[in-house]
């Protein structure tokens, strides 16, 4: 069982955040991405208790993502004004109603039942709510995400604007192993003129930045 992250110190988080920004800027430069391309750093707060969130705000964190619907509802209700909130966990249809009032972006739409519930609860959604479609680019059996061939039908059926795509590549100890999957997601998005790409975690965010990510989801790298 993963332990909750406690005792966060704002100066340390701020230093980590600065370092990540500099690393991403260097990765973009090395890959030839325009300076104007924005890569937003999302702090993943699944293991960060509500009482610790003030330290993140003090450190300069502006965007946070939660994996669990109930925790999102509780944390955003208590600290909603401190951050922009995204939902980044597996989207369960029965939990959609808890999520939509709080977030500006849902990263993980991957089922038609989720589309149905988003339509059902759209009147209670935060104004301007958009979604990302989670794509199983590697075709892993039993893994969340829609097949690339289903993308167009999902876009057509979505009751909310589809801003872009998200993926979780196959687990690997080598960040370079993620590159082909990030590149594939970038191509799928470009073909459909979708601007947002949520890809990359603490392990492989630099590869993601090189391959076109607009949002990277960082946890331990910010908190160590």
Tell me what you see in this structure.
- It is a single chain.
- The chain has 224 residues and is an alpha/beta fold.
- It has a single domain, classed as Alanine racemase (TIM Barrel, Alpha-Beta Barrel), CATH 3.20.20.
- The chain has nine helices and eight strands.
- The chain has helices at 10-31, 53-59, 69-79, 96-99, 112-120, 151-157, 179-191, 205-210, 220-223, and strands at 40-44, 63-66, 84-87, 105-109, 130-134, 162-166, 196-198, 215-218.
- Strand 6 (162-166), helix 7 and strand 7 (196-198) form a beta-alpha-beta unit.
- The chain is globular and about 45 Å long.
Q: In the CATH classification, which architecture applies?
A: Alpha-Beta Barrel
Report how far the terminal alpha carbons are from each other.
18 Å
Tally of separate helices: 9
Determine the structural class based on helices, strands and strand pairing. Answer: alpha/beta
Q: In which range does the helix fraction lie?
A: 25-40%
Classified by CATH, the class is: Alpha Beta
C-alpha Rg (nearest Å): 17 Å
Coarse shape: globular
Give helix and strand order, one letter per element, not per position. HEHEHEHEHEHEHEHEH
Assembly form of the protein: single chain
């Amino acid at each position: 069982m993963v332990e909750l992250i406690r005792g966060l110190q704002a100066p340390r988080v701020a230093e980590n955040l600065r370092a990540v920004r500099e690393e991403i800027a260097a990765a973009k430069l090395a890959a030839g991405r325009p300076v104007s391309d924005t890569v937003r750093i999302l702090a993943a707060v699944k293991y960060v208790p509500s009482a610790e969130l003030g330290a993140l705000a003090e450190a300069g964190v502006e965007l946070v993502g939660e994996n669990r619907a109930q925790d999102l509802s509780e944390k955003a209700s208590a600290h909603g004004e401190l951050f922009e909130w995204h939902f980044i966990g597996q989207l369960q249809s029965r939990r959609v109603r808890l999520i939509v009032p709080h977030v500006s972006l849902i990263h993980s739409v991957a089922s038609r039942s989720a589309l149905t519930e988003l339509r059902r609860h759209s009147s209670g959604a935060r104004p301007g709510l958009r979604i990302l479609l989670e794509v199983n680019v590697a075709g892993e059996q039993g893994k969340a995400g829609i097949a690339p061939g289903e993308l167009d039908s999902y876009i057509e059926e979505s009751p909310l604007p589809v801003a872009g795509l998200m993926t979780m590549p196959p687990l690997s100890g080598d960040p370079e192993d993620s590159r082909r999957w990030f590149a594939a997601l970038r191509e799928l998005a470009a073909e459909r003129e979708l601007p947002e790409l949520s890809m990359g975690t603490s392990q492989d965010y630099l590869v993601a930045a090189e391959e076109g990510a607009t949002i990277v989801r960082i946890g331990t790298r910010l908190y160590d």
